[in-house]
Design a protein that fits this description.
Strand content: 5-15%
Structural class: alpha+beta
Shape: globular
Mean pLDDT: 86
Helix content: 25-40%
Number of helices: 19
């Protein structure tokens, strides 16, 4: 959008009008600039980074008011930034006067109340998004899934083979006393330390905690107590999830020494299931992309590439066999992108499935936690452990999922879009699923823009103090959050609300168009990523094959590019997507392939720095 700025002769007024304009927006998430008087004739605004004493009573004298009136045309220039330059001169000055006298004290008061801390860990919004498509009463009694038995599983001789076993397989080894949790912790901590210099996927190894929890798990087994398939299983958490006694860095140099005395809800759920935390894994800085304060996380399938997405550590670590599973998060693509790039199975569940207490917040109406695993069956096991109502997360719900292991997929009608991987379509059809061509129809043409408005405004509300104190100047990638959050500072409350109304319209249109039980389509198409997150659709990303990398070395390489697809379901029907993915993986082995990591082949050597640079993903409409 082109913006006409005031001419040089009115530079002082331009500064004045911009400041007045900002505070006049009355946004739910916007904060004003500090205002003080230096004389009877001049209004001087402090830098938003400074912290002057705030006046208890703000007034505008007649001389200053007259000056504004004389140059009201210049003041109107700034209203063009939000398409609000329809006010005449008198109204513009009236708005400016009222904004200073009325809005600014309220803005400051609210900021003092709720915005002194970054990260959105406290004081959640009372506006709660619910993605449910039906409001019929349902039985919310939580029923655990019935996992398939795996008789005859034997411990492999190779630790490498153990590292790539599924959760259910490892769980059977522990249950039958073929391996201890202590041994598993040793294996995975060794792998984390061996491969992290290559992948840059780990922020903190939790050795002491891991051995303590493993000892507790082994002692229970010795007493004949088995907590289930996660009992004694090592795992990793994305480092936006708080664990007492360990740093929770949010991937950012601004918070790299932060220790939060908070026990995240998802961590408590996994601990109660007997799982053993071995590492805090890389989050891109403030959960934006794969760049963090210690480097940039690489793709185990092609370490010349980066992993993409802020759940970079969970994706790369699971892919490389550094952990059996990990918990990541998604606001807009941070599960689907890295899972696709790194060739792992991952679930972005229905919004509200997993409680977010103790987790850094970008957007309260978009953020979701989900598992990265070896298989869809493993995703089902982890989801079963972490789902449920978190009493401190207003968006979380007890969703009555059916058991994905008992779904009769022959009774399902599943659509496939133009960009679906047809092998998945053929396999499911052969297994008795009714497969039909499918397209989502909706008229909303600003899906990507709605997501940007929603995410950026809510993110700025959680990091208002961070921006005001100039910490965005040391952010790891200046073309990411710093640029977006400066822009979101001038999104008005009116336009944020209009975006949410458009979001509701989109939800209703998608609901009407969703005439199948599930559909298959590209998991990283940006329109689908935005739509799925706005609507709250669950999707499971599954590997479907490998292909040669672009421009391979002339004498060959073991590096590969992964192929994948997404299986999408209606909100609260994650079990359908999981059941279909389990069925597909029951007769294919793409999810069992192992990346080369540091075994690239005798004729392949990665240049340092890499010659192929994957540009950072820009979240623009």
């Amino acid at each position: 959008m082109a913006v006409d700025f005031c001419p040089p002769s009115a530079v002082g007024l331009t500064r004045f009008s911009l400041r007045i304009f900002f505070v006049s927006l009355s946004s739910l998430y916007m904060a004003g600039f500090a205002l003080r008087f230096h004389s009877q004739q001049d209004l001087i605004f402090d830098s938003p980074i400074s912290t002057p004493s705030e006046p208890s009573n703000i007034t505008m004298d007649s001389k200053s008011y007259g000056k504004c009136l004389e140059e009201a045309t210049q003041l109107r220039c700034t209203f063009k930034m939000v398409d609000a330059h329809f006010f005449n001169g008198t109204k513009v000055v009236e708005v400016a006067k009222d904004a200073v006298e009325f809005n600014l004290p309220i803005i400051r008061s609210n900021r003092r109340l709720v915005a002194s801390e970054n990260g959105g860990l406290h004081n959640p919004s009372c506006l709660v998004f619910n993605p449910e498509w039906t409001h019929k009463h349902v039985d919310n009694t939580s029923k655990r899934f019935q996992y398939p038995a795996l008789p005859g599983i034997r411990r492999p001789k190779s630790e490498e083979d153990i590292a790539f076993m599924s959760i259910l397989e490892l769980g059977e080894l522990i249950r039958t006393n073929q391996i201890t949790s202590h041994e598993l912790v040793q294996i995975f901590l060794q792998r984390l330390k061996r491969y992290n210099p290559v992948l840059e996927a780990v922020i903190t190894s939790t050795d002491e905690l891991a051995y303590k929890q493993a000892k507790e798990a082994d002692e229970l087994i010795a007493k004949g107590v088995y907590l289930g398939p996660l009992h004694g299983i090592p795992y990793g958490l994305k480092d936006i999830i708080a664990v007492p006694g360990y740093k929770t860095t949010w991937g950012s140099r601004s918070f790299k020494d932060q220790v939060l005395d908070i026990e995240a809800w998802v961590y408590k759920r996994l601990r109660s299931a007997g799982a053993v935390l071995v590492a805090k894994l890389v989050s891109g800085s403030l959960a934006y992309d794969d760049i963090w304060f210690g480097g940039r996380t690489r793709n185990p399938w092609n370490i010349e590439e980066f992993s993409t997405g802020s759940s970079a550590g969970p994706a790369a670590s699971t892919s490389a066999g550094l952990v059996p599973f990990a918990i990541g998060s998604e606001t807009a693509g941070s599960i689907t992108f890295p899972a696709s790039r790194c060739g792992v199975t991952a679930l972005r569940p229905t919004f509200g499935t997993v409680g977010r207490t103790g987790v850094m917040s970008i957007s309260e109406s978009l953020d979701k936690l989900g598992p990265f695993c070896r298989s869809a069956a493993d995703c089902s096991v982890v989801l079963d452990a972490i789902r449920g109502k978190d009493p401190d997360d207003l968006s979380s719900r007890d969703i009555p999922f059916r058991d994905p292991f008992s779904i009769d997929i022959r009774k399902l009608t599943v659509g496939y879009m133009d960009d679906a991987e047809m092998e998945v379509v053929h396999v499911l059809k052969a297994k008795g699923v009714n497969m039909v061509p499918f397209k989502l129809n909706y008229t909303v043409d600003s899906v990507q823009g709605i997501l940007n408005f929603t995410m950026d405004v809510e993110m700025l509300a959680h990091f208002d103090e961070w921006q005001r104190t100039g910490q965005d100047d040391i952010y790891e990638a200046q073309d990411q959050w710093p640029t977006e959050l400066r822009r979101s500072r001038v999104i008005s409350a009116v336009d944020y609300v209009q975006a949410q109304r458009a979001r509701r319209k989109l939800i209703e249109e998608v609901k009407k168009s969703f005439t199948v039980d599930a559909f298959i389509g590209n998991a990283t198409d940006w329109e689908k990523v935005c739509l799925g997150n706005l609507v709250g659709l669950p999707v499971i990303v599954i590997p479907t094959g490998l292909k040669n990398i672009s421009n391979p070395p002339s004498k060959g390489t073991r590096r590969r590019t992964t192929i994948n697809t997404g299986i999408y379901a209606r909100p609260d029907h994650d079990h359908i997507a999981l059941a279909l993915a389990i069925a597909y993986q029951s007769v294919t082995d793409h999810h069992k392939q192992r990346p080369p990591i540091d075994d690239l082949g005798p004729n392949d050597k990665i240049p340092d720095p890499p010659t192929v640079v994957i540009p950072p993903r820009r979240l623009h409409p």
